[in-house]
């Protein structure tokens, strides 16, 4: 890594030059690049010395998979599902759901739509290029390009679908119809998950929904091009999500890893399954009962890898509502661990800080 700090290297200039192409990482790959530029060099992580694939302990972990079949068919089935949601949210901060109600055809078309968007000629994509997240549709590479210590091998299209969805004509033609359909399905699933989270906390099923935890929905289509030197960079650096919770659709390539008991555990790309993870804001309002866990995406020589993340938060259009630990969860023995904050304050801090390997929650600790 010594070469990354030699006198001929100006990181700021290289970041600006990369950004101004508006072609993203895909543009580098399409240009035939065979070496990863230094702006993408990953930071060393001591945890990489402990790979789950190399230890007997890691091999013993089974990533939680929750079957939602029967969630509305009786109290016994629902109670079993709620128990699994509680355990996974407390121990892992992550789980997969199957039989979630979103048709396989819609999942496939959503992935295809993201693929079509990124495979368009650059001039069409440039129409959506921006770093102004007040816009309904934003395409760029690395939301924190200028603030994070290491750029990621990934391009993204952000679409704000709630509370104020774009007009159909404002959406990219390559994925317009499926974005509208998928966001409706994702919102239905999101509201069901909020019921399950609420009941898992011992609250009324509508408690979290009534707190507007599903008011905002941002769909992020990620495109991870094949990488010539995957050992030098990451598709996404170690981070926790800044929302209430995330629902992720990923393709067959894999690469998502969760930090569990100080080890990186692979999240299996199960056909038809969706990955659910707790975000920082849900950890904050549950007073650490549910955990927002660090995760990352490794780079790969094959690709592109496609994933679609549904972020439940008004992150791109924050409201002034204040969120603090839920009073019903507090007691003399379990006092509030966080001060109140607004989604705007939290998301501004998260964006300014960038993905730097530290938790954004630390700023809000009491």
From TrEMBL:
Keyword Iron: yes
Name this polypeptide is given: Fe2OG dioxygenase domain-containing protein
Cofactor needs: Fe cation
Pfam family for this entry, one: 2OG-FeII_Oxy
Gene Ontology terms, MF aspect: dioxygenase activity; metal ion binding
Sequence similarity: Belongs to the iron/ascorbate-dependent oxidoreductase family.
InterPro entries according to UniProt: DIOX_N, IPNS-like_FE2OG_OXY, IPNS-like_sf, Oxoglu/Fe-dep_dioxygenase_dom
Domain of life of the native organism: Eukaryota
């Amino acid at each position: 890594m010594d070469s990354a700090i030699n006198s001929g290297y100006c990181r700021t200039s290289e970041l600006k030059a990369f950004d101004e192409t508006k072609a993203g990482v895909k543009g580098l790959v399409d240009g035939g690049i065979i070496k990863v530029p230094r702006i993408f060099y990953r930071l060393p992580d001591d945890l990489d010395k402990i790979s789950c694939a190399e230890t007997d302990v890691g091999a013993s972990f089974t990533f939680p998979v929750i079957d939602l079949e029967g969630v509305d068919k009786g109290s016994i089935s629902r109670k079993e599902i709620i128990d699994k949601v509680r355990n996974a949210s407390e121990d892992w901060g992550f789980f997969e759901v199957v039989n979630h109600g979103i048709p396989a055809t819609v999942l496939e078309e959503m992935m295809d739509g993201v693929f079509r968007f990124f495979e368009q000629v650059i001039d069409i994509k440039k129409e959506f290029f921006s770093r102004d997240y007040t816009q309904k549709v934003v395409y760029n590479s690395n939301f924190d390009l200028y603030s994070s210590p290491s750029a990621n091998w990934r391009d993204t299209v952000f679409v704000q679908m709630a509370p104020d969805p774009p007009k159909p004509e404002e959406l990219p033609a390559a994925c317009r119809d499926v974005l509208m359909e998928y966001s409706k399905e994702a919102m239905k699933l999101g509201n069901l998950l909020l019921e399950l989270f609420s009941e898992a906390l011992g609250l009324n099923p509508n408690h979290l929904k009534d707190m507007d935890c599903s008011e905002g929905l941002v769909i992020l289509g990620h495109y991870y091009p094949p990488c010539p030197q995957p050992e030098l960079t990451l598709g996404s650096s170690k981070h926790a999500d800044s929302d209430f919770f995330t629902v992720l659709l990923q393709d067959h390539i894999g690469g998502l890893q969760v930090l569990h008991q100080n080890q990186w555990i692979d999240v299996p790309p199960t056909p038809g399954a969706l990955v659910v993870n707790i975000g920082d804001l849900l950890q904050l309002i549950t007073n650490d009962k549910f955990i927002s866990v660090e995760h990352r995406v490794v780079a790969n020589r094959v690709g592109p890898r496609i994933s679609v993340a549904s972020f439940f938060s008004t992150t791109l259009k924050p409201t002034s509502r204040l969120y603090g630990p839920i009073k019903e969860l507090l007691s003399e023995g379990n006092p509030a661990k966080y001060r109140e904050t607004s989604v705007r304050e939290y998301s501004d801090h998260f964006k300014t800080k960038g993905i730097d390997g530290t938790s954004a929650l630390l700023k809000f600790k009491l």
